[in-house]
Design a protein that fits this description.
Oligomer: single chain
CATH architecture: 3-Layer(aba) Sandwich
Number of domains: 1
CATH class: Alpha Beta
Order of helices and strands: EHHEEEHEHEHHE
Radius of gyration: 15 Å
Helix content: 25-40%
Strand order of the largest sheet: 1-2-3-4-5-7-6
Length: about 160
Amino acid sequence: MICELSSSDFKDILRVVNEAAIAYKGIIPGDRWREPFMPESELREEIAAGVEFCGWKENGELVGVMGIQRVRDVTLIRHAYVLTNRQHGGIGVRLLQHLLTRARTPEVLVGTWEVALWAIRFYEKHGFQLTFREETNRLLKEYWRIPDRQVETSVVLKLRRHG
């Protein structure tokens, strides 16, 4: 079931992110990989910057997380992770659909690694469209706080909403 997550879920969010991020090991550029993939300090910074997390719990256990962040005139989908053994069961779809109902801007953006073809296909299947490199670079620099090297190795997908 979907639930809003709070500070009491911090350790569980971190556990899900870092376990699920193993999918990127050996795929993303080696200079972008680290263990843990997301240190506690980074998660605290993301939450302080306004990322709000929703989660999927089964039998009281958090098995998937996805964040939403309003940055000026756009909504960002952030940190979408489902435990490895629970992937491909629709949890990510349900979390994304839930967060899209919370988006209050005409544009919703998501960034991911350009080599994470499975993630790109997932978002395209749900109406997002890849932006061209020039726009990707502009969007990443305007709406995210990430190093230049991550900008070089990432893509942005955009969903234009009506209403």
